[in-house]
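seq as requested:
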Amino acid sequence: MRCARRYRFDRNPLRRRSDRVEAIAVLLTLVILFACLWPALLVAGEVYRQGLARELAEPGVRQPVMAVLLEDATSTTTVTAQGTVVQVKAKVRWQAPDGSERVAVRPVPADSRAGSMTRMWVDEAGDPVAAPRRHAQTVTDAAVAGFGVMVAASAVLLVGLTVIRWLLDRRRYADWDTAWESAEQRWRPRKQ
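struct tokens:
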């Protein structure tokens, strides 16, 4: 309510011109921010469409197979510039689409034991490939893209509004100093 009273348009004689300019700037900032919802939705929609296209295209070149662990899973720790990476791998055996059996060391769930089954993805030749994109990842990417557009727009508008308020405050302080000097001239006793 305090904010609404500060920026409302009325005929209050105590409102300065700079107060009215600031109220208009705040109103325009809010209007532009709401107008930025449309580009944010467009960006999110495009990211979603691209992710959906990847989801639909990827399973055609890969298929899931069940692999048997030939040994217990072991973890290795690697320290990189981005941080510490822990990888859990084990030797697994699976059947390729052509019927031949393959063996390789692959990432597996932690604490997997020899003889247990794990799912992995292979291409048409039976070679291991990354899992296809999940729909949750597509939705998350679209939401992050739309949110990013709104955050960027909000940041630009907030900086602009801060600069406008700073300029108006400087003007108000200058007017205040001038008014005090004028009052001092009028109220100072005259020397005779």
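The beta strands are 62-69, 74-80, 83-95, 101-107, 117-123, 128-129.
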